[in-house]
Amino acid sequence: MFLDTHCHLSTIKEKNIDLTNLLENLVQEDFWFILDIGTHCDDLDIRKKNVENALSKSEIAEKVKKIIFYSAGIWPAPEAINDAENQMKALRVFVENHPEIVAIGECGLDHHWNVTNGVASGADFRDEAIFSADFLQKEMDFFQQQILLGKEKNLPIIVHSRDAFEDTLTSIKNAGYHNGVIHCYSYGIEEARQFLDLGWYIALGGATTYCKKSKIAEMKELINFIPKDRLLIETDAPYLAPVPERGKINTPLLIKHTYNFIAENLGITLEELKEIVNSNTKALFF
């Protein structure tokens, strides 16, 4: 049985993917767990409504409902960080009124700058100039507040960390709650060691398959370094489609390529990897 611990169903829908067809295909492909990830304090109702609308056209709606799960969290966008107090109040209300939520996130730190000709660009529109020392501290405080909400509610945390290892590690240590996953892992073995030593899971996605031939040994070493009882697999769909579908709109259906890549590099069968990831997912989210 396949699963996807991190995707964005509403964003997939915005890419003109037929959500009804996708969800039905997931059931037919024997998926049992799809985690739809929150990025804004008030997006949960919208995300659930998009799924409900898709299921209203499905003849197997009840089967699909059983495999869809939800998180709630706030991605570290500058506008959210500047409005942290109100954002956290809204997030708390959502979490307290939606007992079906299985995790807090995605939340965290992002220091990947997209600037072209002096103007913030790319999907994230992030400009390093905005992130002064005070603003970086506000970003960390905002992240820590979400970790503490997860601690209070006994929910795992889905951590977004891009080009921000040291501050991410400091933040989770300051919060003192080590229950969750470093999603879309993009660091090396030494960084993984420090997350793992604290008890975090590591999620590998489609980008794992992007490594050049000169880097394949290094990637294989990382994959084998992660303890099998701490490994998760995800898509981050509609982003980061794995090879051989790189550059296309990603969906959970494409996760099989990442599974195959990881199984091959671990030297185990696909079925063995499925059992490992299924067990870890149950341990973290249930």
* First and last CA, distance: 17 Å
Low-confidence stretches: none
Return the string of H and E elements: EHHEHHEHHEEEHEHEHEHEHH
Question: Structural class of the secondary elements?
Answer: alpha/beta
Oligomeric state of the chains present here:
single chain
* Computed CA radius of gyration, to the nearest angstrom: 18 Å
Strand order of the largest sheet: 1-2-3-4-7-8-9-10
> What proportion of the residues form beta strands (DSSP E)?
15-25%
Number of strands: 10
Main beta sheet, described? Answer: 8 strands, parallel
Specify the overall morphology. globular
**Kindly state the mean pLDDT as a whole number?**
94
How helix-rich are the residues, as a percent range? 40-55%
Number of helices: 12
Describe the structure.
This protein has about 290 residues and is an alpha/beta fold. The chain is about 45% helix and about 15% strand. It is built from twelve helices and ten strands. The strands form two sheets. An eight-stranded parallel beta sheet has the order 1-2-3-4-7-8-9-10, with helices on both faces. A two-stranded antiparallel sheet has the order 5-6. The chain is globular, with a radius of gyration of 18 Å.
Summarize the structure.
This protein is an alpha/beta fold and 286 residues long. 46% of the residues lie in helices and 16% in strands.
Q: Layout of SSEs?
A:
Elements: E1 2-7, H1 9-14, H2 19-28, E2 31-36, H3 44-55, H4 61-65, E3 68-72, H5 78-81, H6 84-97, E4 101-110, E5 115-116, E6 119-120, H7 133-153, E7 157-162, H8 165-175, E8 180-182, H9 189-198, E9 201-204, H10 216-225, E10 231-233, H11 255-266, H12 270-285
Parallel strand pairs: 1-2, 2-3, 3-4, 4-7, 7-8, 8-9, 9-10
Antiparallel strand pairs: 5-6
Helix pairs in contact: 2-3, 7-8, 11-12
